Amino acid sequence: MIGIEQYVLLSALLFLIGGTGFLVRRNVLVSLMSIEVMLNAANLALVAFNRSRLTPGPAQSFAGQSHSGQVFAFFIIAAEAAEVAVGLAIVLALYRLRRTVRSDDADLLKN
Amino acid sequence: MNPVEAAYFYACAALALAGALSVVVAKNPIRGAMGLLLLILSIAGLFLSLHAQFLAAIQLIVYAGAIVVLFLFVIMLLGPNAATPHDRRGVGTRVLGGGLFALSGLAALLAVARAAVAAHRVMPMPQVDPTFGGIDAFGSVLFSDALVPFELSSALLMVSVVGAIAVARGRQGVKSLSRAERDVAQSPPEPAKQAEHSGVFSHEIDAGSDGAHVKESSA
Question: How far is residue A96's CA from residue B56's CA, in Å, rounded to a whole number?
Answer without folding.
Answer: 37
